[in-house]
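Comment thread on ticket #2218

A.B. wrote:
> Attaching the input chain for the structure job we discussed in standup.
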Amino acid sequence: MTLFAFHVVVIVLGILSMGFQLLASRLLNPHFGSSIIVWAWLISTFLAAFSIGSMVGGWISNLGPVGRRRGQLIGTGTALVTLAITALAAKPLLNLIEEHITDPSWSLFVSCVGIFFLPVTALSTFGPQCVQFLAGRGTPPGKASGVVYGVSTLGNIAGVMLTAFVLIPHLPVSTLLYLWLGVAAVSLAALVVLLRPASAS
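C.D. wrote:
> Ran it. Output below, let me know if you need it in another format.
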């Protein structure tokens, strides 16, 4: 049952990560359009966040139980606070950036990095920790890595399809951002419980 819940949470986090990219594109569209330049900056921001988040998550995974727990709580708090800021203030922030940075390229760069980088980075810190979770329960490390990132990628695909074809056509982006925040809160809380050291269970 624990492993089933673990895989469900990994899929949901995959859905959140890539679905959030589509929501980000809808937020940027009224200000910058949807040109190839906009998508290049957006995709690069998300890839940079995935990369740095994975490296930070790998570092957290090698800490002792207390440090690892602290890292998980900081990652969860950072993800939820920044997602909440995005849900509550993304549009005013974009207006402010556009008003004060007249160069479109710099304005787009600041918007992508300032609004979307931190929540995606924080979510990505949990990938290596999920690998360690499986490896600590007897799964060979290579297989654990393949399972986590394979399952997460399935979640990415589901997130893209669900967000593009079901959610965005039927719900306002502002509502979806609150939905993302709520689902992230439940999923990360569940994952933090699942990742507890065996002695703390």
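A.B. wrote:
> Thanks. Noting for the ticket: The CA atoms of residues 24 and 161 lie 15 Å apart.
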